[in-house]
Every structure is written in structure tokens, then in C-alpha cells.
Amino acid sequence: MGWFSLFLGKTTMMVLSPRPLSFVYCILVIIISLTKTSSEIISVKYCNPSEYSGNYTTNSTYHTNLNTLLSNLTSNTETNNYNGFYNVSYGQNTNKVYAIGLCRGDVKRDNCHSCLNNAIVNLTQYCPNQKEAYAWYDDETCLLYYSDRLIYGVLIIEPWDYSWDGENEMVVDAVQFNRSLINLMDSLITRAALGDSSRKYATSSVVGPNNHQTIYGLVQCRPDLSGTDCSGCLNESMLALPGCCNNMKGARILRPSCILRYGTNTLFYDPEADAPPPAPSNNNTSSQGNSNVLKVALAVALPVVVVVLLLSFIIIYLRVRKPKQSFEAQEDDYEIQTADSLQFDFDAIQEATNDFSDANKLGQGGFGIVYRGRLSNGQEIAVKRLSRDSGQGDIEFKNEVLLVAKLQHRNLVRLLGFSIQRKERLLVYEFVPNKSLDHFIFDPTEKRQLDWESRYKIIGGIARGIVYLHEDSRLRIIHRDLKASNILLDEEMNPKISDFGMARLFDVDQTQGETNKVVGTYGYMAPEYALCGQYSVKSDVFSFGVLVLEIVSGRKRSSIRHGENVEDLLSFAWRNWRAGTVANIVDSTLTNVSETEIMRCIHIGLLCIQENVADRPTMGAIILMHNNNSVSLAVPSEPPSSVDSKDRFLPDMQSWEHNSDPTRSRESTNTSAPISVNEASISELFPR
Fold first, then answer.
1. Cis (ω within 30 of 0) for the bond into 159?
2. What are the start and end residues of every segment in region (Disordered) (predicted)?
């Protein structure tokens, strides 16, 4: 497991800190805790957590719909159907409201309803006039989440929060304790992810170090999520533990989609509740009644079905005979059109971009132009307007909408929606203000804004985003066009991977694919992909290795000059690493750098660009190498010859390259490079 070793030894895991509570909110919490019962205390709450929903006006249609929806949230009270989960929606178009209620798996129905009702009253008071809010309530008894966007079936892992149990005690034997905790949580995550659509919940306990301490564990996901999303959410929480709760005797991490908790002092859950909900009972009377109803229904419905089938055949016949027009909605578009919550009105986007004016133009590539825009609610967006005459337009559109809309990670650019009106194909992304990575690292002036701490953080963020694509998203996704111009930087210089028009889906157990058309950017392409069209997760690993070397050196792959000669960055880095002159690789503008981190990043980059696919590490292993200096690294082999590669697939050319828009199924370990081979420990300053 990639996250298992994160608990062992010291780690420099970088996690996104939860939003700090304001002074006013702290005072409110104290007042509430003194004046209300324990069943009315909010554990954690966020108003407009996505920062995109905005506010509503008091007594507006949205306000009325929200009140109506919340008042009916727990109306489904049939005993046999109770599973502690509620999903409702109410209203139309922009005034439609969605809500989810979830109670912890061991909470009885009456207590669940009481918790949710208290949450409804208090959360709307805490977040007045805000369209989106969520809270874990009453010591994690229940979760309430409402929004103006579709949230059912959507993995939402941020914002998140954490707390410690008891007196904030720390364990004595941290290594053995963490080993026991990891084993416990691994089994619980597996069990919860295997749950069905009624419940994804698991509890258990293990005896801790020296057989004198019991560790209790509880995990739960919203049951509307897939098993992969459930596992991904809980694994994100496990990865966050070293940064927030390292060696604590008890802690909990709360996310909009899942909860993870452990403790040693007391048993905090009901062990009798960890069983599937009872199946509905059957009796002869109800069976007979159902049989009679079925007969009547068949008698009425059969003629209707016949008429519908005849009409369907006629419609299909007419459609087959009708010639298809360019950019007409195709088969896959039907699935897109059902996602009403993602569809933007074309006129609204046209107004937001000032009729796609040149003044708002951010960039242009082979698939179209990207514009900056501002919606009527003040939200800034980036709009990719796909070119009508691009042979790849439809393909990119389907890829990005169907794949990216469901990707939720802090290191991926978020797709907000789309428009397919007036024969236009528009993609609407979040606006990322600080342009792309190449704007900084390759510019002599701008690169000075990126000190080593920022570059090290960027490398780690890119790695986490790729791990999510490869291991933690719904399906394994190969990006195929990772490069500096496709890494965007937000206001805090956090990296966000963009541009998924060339991405490819893999099945959970699929390891390699082939294509007749090689797309991407040759400088970042793995040799097996550029020459043979074979791509896999290791293709992205190769591209990541090139990126790492560019970030460390501040140079493009083909920009190392010796007089009139130009040397490829990969061979330049390899030659200096072998010669022990790694200082030549490092960007000369960097000062006060960590020699250990610099050396480690160069070493990781060289491991990623090895010609043999099997020798390259997985991204999960790279995360471990990046965050844990105690892990020894394997000796890399020489990267593919840049001269030979250029002769074979054209010098410095790009295939379907375009500018960036502003916007753990786990792989078999037998394809990973060993990460504990002690042939060239990172503690050595230079390779032998």
C-alpha cells in the first residue's frame, strides 16, 4: 500500500489544511455548547464549501424551495426501508435544490431523524442566504448537505476537517501502533467499499502494541458513491492522518463524502449495528394483493407498450434515413444532455466572455480558443470554445465532459459545465489565475517567483493529481499529455492538472493500451508510446519525470546549449548525475535550497524516464519516495537516446499539441521499480 509506509518514520506529507474557524464562529460554538443540548452541537460546518454556489435572496424562489426540501428530507419513514440515508431534490432550473442526509451506521432511526432535524434548523441559521452548506452534527451522528448543484453520486472530498479525541494524548510505541492502525483501517476501507447502495459502513477493533490497548475503528461513505469512490475518499483521509493527527491516540477526519475515525479510550460505536439492514418481510396477504395489482397493470399497460414500440420503430427508421449533420448531437451526447446540472446557457456564456472578444482570449490551440469570462453572479470562468473544423473537436468534448466532470481533486482543474447549443461545443472550467507552469519556469524573470519550496510543493501536487487519475478515480485514467503548459497554478501556486482531451480510460485490471494515432507532445512522450503507440500509466510516469527535471533545472527539454550544439535535458541530467556534478542541473536562480530534496527529486526524475517500462516506478511509489527521505531509491538506468529518438519521430515536433486551457484500484506491484533496494541510498550525495 502506498500510504502504509507514510506512518512509519518521519514524513513530510503535504496536505491541504482545513479552513480555519473564524473568531466569531468559535464564540458561537462556545455559546451554543453552553445553551443547547448535546444533540444540537455541530461538529464541523462549511457555508458555500465549493465557493461557486453564491447566495440567495430571502423569500426568493430558491429560499422557498430549500425550506420545502429540508422539511421533507426525512419523510420516508417506512421501517423496512430505513438505512440512514436520504436524497431529495426540489425545484426547477437555477432554483433547483439538492440535499443529502446521512446518519452514522449505528444510529437508530428516531435518533437519526432527531439529529437531521436539529441540523436543518441550525445549519440554515449558521449559513443564512448561502446556497450550499454541509455539516457533520452531534459528534458525527449525522451529515447534512444541501446545494444548488447535483451532489448525489458525486465524490466530494473537500473541504475537510479533523479533530483529536480525549485529552490529545499521543501513543508511546508509535511504529507498532501505526502498523496496527493501518491494518485495521485497510480492512475496514475494503469492507465499506464493498457495501451496496443502501450502506457503506464498517467497524472493528484490534489489540494494539504490547496487548494492553484496544484500537477501535469506524469508516463510512455515502452509499450513493461507487466502491471505487468510497475507497478513494477514505484513502485520502488515511493519507492526511500523518499531517494532522500523527501518533494521536484518537482522531477523526470528516469529509462531505466519508468519515474515518479511530480511538483507544472508549468504544464510540455500537458493535451490534455493523450488519446489513433487515430485508423487508413477506406475507401471503401482501403477495396475493400484489399479484392482483400486477394482473390489472398488465392488462392496462400491454396495449400502451405495443403502441410505444411501433412509434419507436418508426422514429428509428426515420432517423436512420436522415443524413447526419456536422456537430449534430450523437449517441454519446444523450448521456451528456441528461446532466442538466452541468449545462450552461449559451447566451450566458456569450455575455460572460463579451461575445468571445479578443480582449478575453487566454490562449489558442489545435482544438480551439480559451476565453476568460465572468458570470452574472461574479464568478470567474475559463471557456474553451472548440473549433468547428477540428477533426478532434467532438472527441475532446466527449472526453472532457464525461470524464472530467466527475473528477474531484485539489490538483485537477475543475470542469464546471458545458454548452452544446447553436452547434457550439463549449467547456466551462474554473478560472485559475496564475497561468501555467511553463510561464514561470522557462522565463528568466518570472522563474524567480518560484523558490525551491514552491517548486518542491508543485512536484508533490502534480504527483498527487496523477495518483488520483491512476488509482483513486472511478476508472484508471491515462492523461497522455502531461507537460508544463498543462499544469496551471492557482493564487497560492498550487498545481492543477488540466486538458483531458487526450485522456484515455482503462478498466480496473487493464495495464496497457494501443492506438493508431499518437497524440500529445513528443518532448514528453515515453518512447514506447511515441514509436509503437503503446500507452499505460507508465507513459504518464515518463512525462512526469521530464516535468520534474524541467522544474529543477528551469530549462526546457531541448534547451541545453554547448556553443552551437544543443543537448537534450534528459541526457544532460544523466551525464551530470553520473559524473557527480548535479549542481550543473539545478536552476541557477535557486538559493537556500535543500540539497537532500534537490538530489532526491533529480533521482526520482531519472527513475521515471528509464526506457524500460517495467523499471519505472508507479506514481504511488513516487509519492512515497517524495515524502519519505528514509526510503532508499533504486539505481536508474540510462534514459532513451534523444538523438536516436529525434531521428525516429521528427525533431521537436508535436502531434495534436495545443495550449493549456485555464482551467486506488491499484496497479500490480510487479511493474514497479523497487523502492527499497540499497544500491544507491539517497543519503549519498552523488551516485557511484
1. yes
2. 635-688
Are the beta carbons of 204 and 254 closer than 8 angstroms?
no
Q: Report residue 403 CA to chain centroid gap.
A: 12
Q: Which residue from 520, 532, 536, 525 is spatially nearest to 470, judged by alpha carbons?
A: 536
**CA angle 195-197-203, nearest 5°?**
35
* Residue 147 and residue 173 share a domain: no
Specify the number of domains making up the chain: 4
- Give me 340's grid cell: 442538466
For the record, the C-alpha cell of 573 comes out as: 541530467
pLDDT of 454 higher than 70: yes
Give residue 2's Cα distance to chain centre.
Answer: 17
State the Cα–Cα distance between residues 453 and 528, nearest whole angstrom. Answer: 34
SS3 track for 624-644 = HHHHCCCCCECCCCCCCCHHH
Residues 579, 557 share a domain: yes
Which H or E element spans position 46? strand 42-47
Count other Cβ atoms within 10 Å, centred on residue 372: 20
C-alpha cell of residue 68: 420545502
* Catalytic (active site) residue 389: no
> If you average pLDDT over each of 66-75, 325-334, 457-466, which comes out highest?
457-466
Strands 415-419, 380-386: pairing kind: unpaired
CA distance to 40, 168, 237, 607, per residue, from 278 (Å): 29, 38, 30, 53
CB-facing half-sphere around the CA of 77: CA atoms within 13 A: 10
SS3 276: coil
pLDDT digits (tens, 9 = 90+) for 100-113: 999 999 999 889 99
Give the ranges where 99-164 is alpha helix by DSSP (H).
109-126
Classified as helix, coil or strand, 347 is: helix
Average predicted confidence (pLDDT) for the chain: 74
Residue 670 domain-assigned? Answer: no
Beta-carbon-side half-sphere exposure of residue 198 (alpha carbons within 13 Å) = 9
CB 449 within 8 A of CB 623: no
Same domain, 227 and 341: no
Q: What is the pLDDT of residues 309-339, one digit of tens each?
A: 666 666 655 544 433 333 333 444 444 443 5
Question: Is 185:233 a contact under the CB 8 Å cutoff?
Answer: no
> Is the distance from CB of 649 to CB of 534 less than 8 angstroms?
no
Q: Give the residue numbers spanning the domain of 57.
A: 20-152
Model pLDDT, residue 394: 55
Q: Is 632 exposed, middle or buried (0-12, 13-18, 19+ CB in 10 A)?
A: middle
Among candidate residues 233, 234, 185, 189, the one with its CA nearest the CA of residue 205: 185
Considering the candidates 138, 224, 481, 661, report the single residue annotated as catalytic: 481
C-alpha span between 591 and 569 (Å, rounded): 21
The three-class DSSP label of residue 481 is coil
CB-facing half-sphere around the CA of 184: CA atoms within 13 A:
23
Q: What region, left, alpha or beta, does residue 452 occupy, with left being phi > 0 and alpha being psi -120 to 50 degrees?
A: alpha
> Residue 671 corresponds to which cell in the numbers above?
511493474
Residues in the chain: 688
Half-sphere exposure of 393 (CA within 13 A, CB side): 20
Backbone phi, then psi, for 380, in 5-degree steps? -85, 140
Q: Which amino acid appears at position 195 of this protein?
A: G
